Each structure stands twice: as structure tokens, then as C-alpha cells.
Amino acid sequence: MSMLDWNAYRQQLTVRIGEIAKISPDTIKGYQTLSAAGQKANLLGPKIRELISLAVAVTLRCDGCIAVHTEAAARHGASREEIAEALAVATTVNAGAALVYSARVLDAYQQVAPPRQPA
């Protein structure tokens, strides 16, 4: 059993983004310009770009990105195992970010905590 009908969700997302395009065409044009700019050199190739996109999508917790980039990764030949490896990288980066921000919490605490009295 699937958690979500990703194909239907992707189609619904396309409709809603089409509505945004009618209301704010420059927003969509700007997005399309950014997307095209990242593909111009084509050094990574479409499959690797989609695997990176999936890792970023997981890190950002973007269901729309997951729906769009999973389909694109599959279309460009990414295997389930390659996708799992990209997701493992995302998991590691998220854990690393949590460690970095944990260090920031301790740094902030050091600045605001009252001085400790010697025991």
C-alpha cells in the first residue's frame, strides 16, 4: 500500500502551479530561468541532477519536489538503489546539520547561562 498517490499529487500540483503562472507569470518565468541555468553546462547529466534534487527534496521536506524529481529520476534511468544512496546522503547531511546546530545551541547557552558557582 502506498503512502500517497504520487502520480495524482504530481498532476494536482501541475494544475495549481498553472494557476500561479496565470496570476504571477514572472514568478514562474524566474523559476524556469533558474532551472534552465542549472542545466546549461550539463556536466552532471540529468540523472545525477535528479538524484541531487531528491536528496535536497528530502532535506527540505518538499513533497512536491519528491513527486516531480522521483518521476524525472526514474525517467532518466536512476535505479531504486541509486535513489537510496542519494537519500542516504541526505540523511547523513541532515544528521550532520543537527550536530552543527547542536553545537550552536551550546554556544548560545554559554552566552546566556548564569555563571556557575564552584561546588
Descriptive notes:
With 119 residues, the protein is mainly α. The protein has a single domain (6-112), classed as AhpD-like. Helices cover 80% and strands 0% of the residues. It has 5 helices and no strands. It has helices at residues 6-23, 25-39, 45-60, 63-75, 80-112. Helix 3 (45-60) packs antiparallel against helix 4 (63-75). It starts with 5 loop residues before the first helix and ends in a 7-residue tail after the last helix.
Tally of contiguous helical segments: 5
Helix-residue proportion: over 70%
Q: How many domains comprise the coordinates? A: 1
Alpha-beta content class: mainly alpha
The description of the largest β-sheet is: none
H/E element order: HHHHH
Mean pLDDT: 95
CATH architecture level-2 label: Up-down Bundle
Outline: elongated
CATH topology: AhpD-like
Task: Tell me the fraction of residues in β-strands, as a range.
Answer: under 5%
